[in-house]
Amino acid sequence: MSEFIKKEKNGVVYYTSPQLAACRRISHAFFTRKGGLSKGPFESLNMRFNCDDARENVLRNHIIGGALVGAEPANIVCTNQKHTDRVRVIKGKYTEFDGQDEGVDALVSDVPGLCLTAYFADCQIVMLFDHKKNVAAIVHAGWRGVQNGIVVKTLDIMREEWGCDPADIFAAVGPSICRSCFETDEDVPRLMEEAYGVFAADYIYKEGEKWHVDLKNITYSSLVRYGVSVINIDMSGICTVCDHEKDLFWSQRRCGDIRGVQGAMIMIKNK
Ligand SMILES: [Zn+2]
Description:
This protein is an alpha+beta fold. The chain has helices spanning 18-21, 55-69, 143-148, 150-162, 187-196, 215-226, 252-255, and strands at 5-9, 12-16, 26-31, 76-78, 87-90, 106-109, 115-120, 124-130, 135-141, 169-173, 183-184, 204-207, 210-213, 233-235, 262-268.
């Protein structure tokens, strides 16, 4: 397990996972705010369409991000994040599909050149890659995604559709809210206990009147319990809310609703 590495190219500041970077068949990036074209509260690499930012700028920001991982603009495939547990499988040629309106929070594909894209502003982005079957996934998991187990559902689909063995999977959990900043009422811990049983208890604590849930480590231990090797998992220790470089990230908790979102992309390279 390693900390993410901060990089910069053509003004775009982004992070990579050392474990995923060692997989030569893929390219990937967890982007920050830096290096895009948007202005004002969306300055600058905003990838959020449903806001007051100019759509043209958001599209061009996607192209900037795509270029960094080597993707053609037409091959950028996006989630439609609604905190669901819906996983979209893409095999063969990419086509629009019916279920998009209901929300899609994870994408899985074995298609080279397809750039799987998701978004974050406190939520976790989890990237997965099976280096033997050449299957890549990107998962958006906020607390609701942790509760509904979307990471494990994505691993299940990789196993069902491609026969992926967890021992062959690399995983990276991106910059996201830390347990100290994730302050909640008692409803969230209760839902976590319903979802995870006694296993959740190690990741929940109370300070004063408020509860805290360690979402990052619930995800980490879910991966390990599934059979992903500890040494194949990278966890970013960066908190998008309280990290000292606050201007690097939009945070839902810190910035409110008038803000952008960071993108994250993973692509299987064309041979
Ligand atoms: Zn924090």
